[in-house]
Amino acid sequence: MKKTLPFLCFITVGLVSAALPGQSYAENPITNQAQVNKNNPRTMEESASLNYQHTGNATSLTTDSGEILYPYAHSHPTIDCAPLHLCVIHLMDHEKINNLSLGDTVRWIVQTGEAGTRAVVLIKPTEDKLTTNLVITTNRGRIYYLNLQSTANHYIPMVGFYDPEEIIKHVLDQQEKITEQQKDNIATLPSVNPQDINFDYWCEGSETLPERIFSSLGKVFIQLPTAWIEGKAPVLFIVENGQEILTNYELNHHYYVVNHLFKEAHLIIGSGNNQKTITIHAGKRPLFESWLN
After folding, report:
1. For the purposes of burial, counting CB atoms within 10 Å of the CB of 248, is it exposed (0-12), middle (13-18) or buried (19 or more)?
2. Angle at CA of residue 278, ends 277 and 283, nearest 5°
C-alpha cells in the first residue's frame, strides 16, 4: 500500500548572528527580512504573515533577543554551528517532538528539552567542518528537515520558526469573531419615518445626559452614552400625575426604545447616595430653562 508522507519542511539556516572569541561578526546574509513597524499592535509574526498573504513572499525575522525566525515550509536555510558551542532550535508553541533523528550521531551531540510551551533542541558539533542533517517530527504533523554544518568562525545561537498559513487563519478567525460580535451588538433600530421625527425633548438633572432623544411613529428613542451601556444601565420610569410608573422598553444598540409617547420620564442612574435622576421632558425647552442652561 502506498503511504502518503506529511509535507517536509526543508530548512537550512545560513545566518551568522554570533561570533567566537577573536572573530568579528559576519554580515547578515538574509535578505528581504520583514521590517515591522513597532507602532503596529500586531506581533512581528502576524505582520510578516499578512504581508505574505498579500505578496506571496514569506520572510525571515529577527527578534529583539537575536533569535532568527524562519517561515515554516517557505525557507531553505543551513544552521551554522561551532565546535563545542550550542545552537538552540525552538519549535513552535504547543508543539511536542515525536521523533528526532540525527545523521551523524558520533561527532554531533543533540539534546531535547522544553522552554515554557515550546520544545527545544540543542545541537553541538565536536569538530570543525562537519556536515549532517537532522529530522524532527512533531505532534502537529510537521516534519522539519534541517541541514547542519560546523564552522570554527561563527555560529547561530538561536533559531525558531513561524507558520504563515496558520497565523493567517488565526487572524482571519479572530477578525470574523469580532465582526460577528459587532453584528450581534448592533441591532437594527425599528423603522423611523424621516418626515415624522420629532426632536422636541429636553433633559435636566445631571451633568451627563442622553446624547439624543427623538420620537417617530409613536415610539421614543433615547440614545445613551457608551459609559452607561458598559456600566450599570439606568432604569426608565414614565411619570404620570407625579408618580413614577414602570414601562416597557427595550435596549436596541445604544438606544432605549419606548413603544409609546410620554410627556415626562425619569432615568435613574446608580443607587443609594450615588443615585441620580435625569428628567426627560417632551416639548420644547422653556425659554427660562434655556437661559439657565
Report:
1. exposed
2. 145
Return the SS3 of 106. Answer: coil
Report field, pTM of the whole predicted structure over 0.90? no
> What are the boundaries of each domain within the chain?
44-168, 197-282
Closest CA to 277 of 221, 234, 228, 220: 234
Q: Which residues pair with 251 in a beta bridge?
A: 256
Q: Is CATH 2.60.40 the classification given to domain 44-168?
A: yes
Strands 79-81 and 143-150, by their bridges, are parallel
Give pLDDT tens digits for 230-263: 777 889 999 999 899 888 888 887 889 999 999 9
Residue among 287, 280, 286 nearest 202 (CA): 280
Identify the CATH assignment for 197-282 out of 2.40.50.180, 3.30.365.10, 1.10.10.10, 2.60.40.2500.
Answer: 2.60.40.2500
